[in-house]
Write a sequence for this structure.
């Protein structure tokens, strides 16, 4: 499509069907201000969540635990507890690594760590519920057990080989 500009500021061109087309270019006379780059409202924050930006998509968490490590530069015998993760890779089943909580995001995504920690929390809560139920059952069984007198205990002991 070829076009030329006339004296009124309108762009004249030849359309697809061979006819002339005329469209007005925006100007201050038309009431449409010219665009000035950067003159609009400020852009909002980007809301896109990238889950595996700097991490290895093939790594996964096998286990997590706390380990006691010495304090660097401290007095002899000073230690602190550090959370560590034991990692594996789907593409290399024999590859394993133990990394600190500070470096785990270099290997797995934040979502993976969050899901792992949520699973640990849920398993711990289930274990506590099971423990409390067992403790209540044992307490009820002790309450229901008959109380043996001294003579009854002697009789039971006498029957033992």
């Amino acid at each position: 499509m070829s076009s030329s500009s006339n004296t009124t500021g309108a762009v004249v061109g030849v359309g697809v069907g061979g006819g002339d087309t005329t469209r007005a270019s925006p100007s201050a006379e038309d009431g449409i201000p010219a665009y000035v780059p950067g003159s609009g409202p400020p852009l909002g924050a980007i809301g896109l969540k990238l889950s595996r930006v700097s991490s290895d998509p093939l790594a996964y968490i096998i286990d997590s635990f706390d380990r006691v490590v010495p304090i660097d530069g401290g007095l002899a015998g000073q230690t602190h507890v550090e959370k560590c993760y034991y990692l594996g890779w789907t593409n290399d089943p024999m590859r394993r690594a133990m990394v600190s909580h500070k470096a785990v995001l270099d290997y797995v995504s934040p979502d993976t760590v969050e899901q792992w920690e949520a699973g640990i929390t849920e398993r711990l809560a289930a274990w506590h519920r099971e423990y409390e139920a067992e403790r209540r059952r044992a307490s009820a069984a002790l309450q229901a057990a008959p109380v043996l007198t001294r003579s009854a205990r002697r009789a039971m002991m006498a029957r033992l080989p």
User: Anything to note?
Assistant: Residues 59-142 form one domain. The beta strands are 3-5, 10-14, 20-24, 59-70, 79-89, 96-100. The helical segments are 110-144, 150-159. The radius of gyration is 38 Å.
